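ARCHIVE CARD
CATEGORY: sequence design from structure
SOURCE FIELD: tokenized fold
FIELD CONTENT:
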């Protein structure tokens, strides 16, 4: 169900990896060699920013996280390469899939520990007991470049569940996601597909054969939230879909969900687990991180579950139902923001 086994020619995959994997190794080597100098320069920048504007030390944190990201990604690629050799040069597929899930858990745990340790995160989770049992459709909010770690961290690693991801095709540029993601039954979706029905069918196919330890992960917004994206999307919706615009314009923290993938998954008759979170929005852009707002951030996460039997049938009713869930998520995020302002 991954892009390489269904839609991507083998030659194209090899050509891409001949660029992205050496580039990853080169960046790690260059960063490692220059790390002492980079840290010293970053420290000087942080001192000046602290003296002139009382900004927290961010430059050093960013440099160290960049190195950690490169090191962890390189370690994941090397781990999977060694497993490919141990699996008879890729002949034992079950071994490669099992190992890819192990790498995914380690990758998410290590990256989140790195960013959390460097920036001083404190995370609270509500409703985590609702994640199990599978099979589930996990629908997550998408607000930053970091929150895509949450499904692997909170469901795959913490609950040892095997998620099948709907993931945007652009992320194939990351060799760790490319190699690991294509070993697992994921689907790299094109956001500009000329055949949305075919894309929806392939997404729905991810739910086939799931057991009590399985699930499908999708970010219904399709891209991470920013105010600029929200304005642009609402401008389009006002003309193309006035009904959706009327609902979406009141969302303060979310983009309207894209219906294609979620509705296709709802047809499979599986419980849905929603995940809202607050506190990671400061990682939407590098300029947000540079502003220092992520230092010492309190991360709040909330899960809730809707049984398949409680999900209406029929496309119009399901669209309204999904928008109702999105409104619930938006209101919860707003309540957490308001509470944070009062403390």
């Amino acid at each position: 169900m991954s892009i390489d086994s269904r839609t991507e020619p083998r030659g194209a995959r090899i050509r891409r990896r001949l660029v992205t994997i050496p580039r990853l190794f080169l960046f790690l080597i260059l960063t490692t060699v220059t790390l002492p100098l980079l840290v010293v320069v970053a420290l000087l920048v942080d001192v000046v920013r602290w003296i002139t504007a009382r900004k927290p030390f961010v430059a050093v944190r960013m440099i160290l996280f960049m190195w950690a990201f490169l090191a962890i990604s390189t370690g994941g690629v090397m781990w999977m390469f060694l497993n490919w050799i141990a699996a008879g040069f890729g002949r034992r597929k079950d071994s490669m899939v099992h190992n890819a899930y192990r790498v995914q858990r380690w990758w998410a745990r290590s990256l989140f520990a790195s960013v959390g340790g460097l920036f001083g995160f404190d995370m609270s989770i509500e409703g985590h007991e609702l994640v199990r049992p599978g099979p589930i459709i996990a629908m997550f909010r998408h607000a930053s470049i970091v929150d895509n770690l949450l499904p692997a961290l909170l469901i795959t690693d913490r609950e040892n569940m095997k998620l099948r991801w709907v993931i945007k095709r652009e992320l194939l540029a990351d060799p760790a996601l490319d190699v690991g993601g294509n070993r697992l039954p994921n689907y790299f979706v094109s956001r500009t597909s000329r055949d949305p029905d075919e894309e929806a069918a392939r997404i729905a196919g991810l739910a086939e054969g799931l057991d009590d330890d399985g699930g499908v992960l999708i970010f219904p917004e399709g891209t991470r939230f920013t105010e600029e994206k929200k304005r642009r999307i609402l401008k389009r919706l006002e003309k193309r879909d006035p009904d959706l615009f009327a609902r979406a314009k009141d969302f303060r923290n979310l983009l309207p969900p894209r219906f294609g993938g979620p509705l296709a998954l709802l047809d499979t008759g599986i419980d849905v687990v929603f995940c809202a979170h607050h506190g990671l929005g400061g990682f939407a852009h590098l300029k947000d991180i540079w502003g220092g707002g992520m230092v010492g951030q309190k991360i709040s996460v909330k899960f809730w579950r809707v049984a398949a039997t409680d999900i209406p049938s029929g496309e119009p009713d399901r669209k309204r139902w999904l928008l109702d869930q999105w409104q619930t998520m938006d209101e919860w995020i707003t309540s957490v923001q308001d509470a944070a302002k009062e403390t």
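CARD ANNOTATION: The longest helix spans residues 10-53. The chain has one domain: 3-342.
SHELF: design records, drawer C
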